[in-house]
């Protein structure tokens, strides 16, 4: 089931970029089913991140922010239940998603704060790809 969740998340990312709305809806449903089947809080956190990405992609910016907050709450509750490198990746993704959503809403202050957080996390991780993603926002 973990492999199914990985593949469903990947499908959502690819379809979001390609703009295939119908297929994106199907991939999101597959992600939801895989996360429910796994039944773990970490799977729920990953689902919230995936839902936030999809919401951002379709312009539902407030929904994206709410999904990021829900993912942060789950991740906080997990505390030590997620390996540190995975936790750092999730936190970076959350800050980037939050920053992009706030920018889209025109909340420049919140966008800058979130994107600075994402940039700092990417720099600490030595993650040039993520630093580039931040710079594109």
Description:
The chain has 137 residues and is mainly alpha-helical. It contains 7 helices and no strands. The model has no long low-confidence stretch (mean pLDDT 86). It has helices at 2-18, 21-38, 41-57, 61-78, 84-105, 108-125, 128-135. Helices cover 86% and strands 0% of the residues. The relative contact order is 0.10.
Number of E-type strands: 0
Query: Termini separation (Å)?
Result: 34 Å
**What is the element string, with H for helices and E for strands?**
HHHHHHH
* Alpha-carbon Rg, integer: 14 Å
SS-based structural class?
A: mainly alpha
Q: What's the helical proportion of residues?
A: over 70%
Strand fraction: under 5%
Shape: globular
Count of individual helical segments: 7
Average per-residue pLDDT, rounded, comes to 86
Major β-sheet annotation: none
Low-confidence residue ranges? none
Topology:
Blueprint: H1 2-18, H2 21-38, H3 41-57, H4 61-78, H5 84-105, H6 108-125, H7 128-135
Helix pairs in contact: 1-2, 1-3, 2-3, 3-4, 3-5, 4-5, 5-6, 6-7
